[in-house]
Write a structure and sequence with these properties.
CATH superfamily: SGNH hydrolase
Keywords: Signal
Strand content: 15-25%
Distance between the termini: 42 Å
CATH architecture: 3-Layer(aba) Sandwich
Protein name: Lipolytic protein G-D-S-L family
Number of helices: 9
GO molecular function, one term: phosphatidylcholine lysophospholipase activity
CATH class: Alpha Beta
Number of strands: 7
Strand order of the largest sheet: 2-1-3-4-5
Oligomer: single chain
Structural class: alpha/beta
InterPro entries: Ester_Hydrolysis_Enzymes (IPR051532), SGNH_hydro (IPR013830), SGNH_hydro_sf (IPR036514)
Largest sheet: 5 strands, parallel
Domain SGNH hydrolase-type esterase: 32-238
Length: 254
């Protein structure tokens, strides 16, 4: 008689596992905030957000929508609510998604490349302290409007130390962008105490990965200091999407 109980327990396990599997077919809406790297420089349908959406659908099912709010040349300053440049557009995109209360809203943010410039982009150069303060203002404003949302901060990418197009980056900028990384870490640590389960560290691997493999995954571009490497090519955008989707999936579990 005791043996006959085994199929019953197995059935319970199967039901539990099935429920877990099918819960993966969830609704997730992602708003991407960033600069030209987020916007994409290859083709409209070949950007990191588009590729990230494909990868998320493979894991979560078809109910994943993305909105690409990346703008070439933009900094954290341009996304501050007070500047009224991009924040209203971000909110418009998020409002469309937030209307569906059954979907999880996620903001995937990668800013810092243009903040780190010596001159050119709005507000540059942005100090590490102001960079963190700007990210906090953006995050606080988003969470005030969308309290159930999750925010993922991805670390800004590596670029070559001779990068100089319409804006000047060079070695000074490269070092500055590195100084932003601990600022993200510290900010997320603050949110773990003040607003847990809503703000997360995203991708941290891409800086070193692209530094090591820039000839394969970044596009050669002509600048005043010679050929520089800043923007991912199609393969690089797919690599970035893999890292971003992994970070988003991790945030969804917490």
């Amino acid at each position: 008689m005791k043996f006959n109980k085994l199929p019953y327990y197995l059935l319970l396990v199967f039901i539990a596992c099935s429920a877990f599997i099918y819960n993966d077919n969830q609704k997730v809406n992602v708003v991407f905030i960033g600069d030209s790297i987020t916007h994409g420089t290859v083709a409209k349908d070949q950007s990191p957000p588009v590729f990230t959406g494909h990868l998320l659908r493979e894991k979560l099912g078809p109910n994943v929508q993305v909105s690409n709010q990346g703008v070439s040349g933009f900094t954290t300053v341009d996304f501050l609510p007070a500047t009224k440049k991009m924040f209203p557009k971000v909110k418009a995109a998020a409002n469309n998604f937030y209307a569906d209360s059954t979907a999880q809203l996620v903001f995937s943010i990668m800013l810092g490349t243009n903040d780190s410039a010596i001159k050119g982009p709005n507000g540059s150069p942005v100090s590490p302290e102001n960079y963190q303060a700007n990210l906090k203002t953006i995050a606080d404003s988003l969470l005030a409007a969308y309290p159930k949302a999750k925010i993922v901060f991805n670390y800004p990418l590596w670029y070559s130390d001779n990068t100089h197009n319409r804006s000047s980056y060079l070695k000074e900028g490269q070092q500055r962008v590195l100084s932003y990384h601990p600022q993200i870490h510290a900010l997320v640590k603050q949110y773990k105490k003040s607003n847990p389960h809503h703000v997360f560290e995203g991708d941290r691997k891409s800086f070193k990965y692209f530094e090591k493999n820039y000839l394969t995954y970044l596009k050669p571009e002509n600048g005043t200091q010679g050929t520089f490497y800043l923007h991912p090519n199609t393969q690089g955008e797919q690599v970035l999407a893999k890292l971003w989707s992994t970070a988003i999936l991790k945030a969804l579990k917490n």
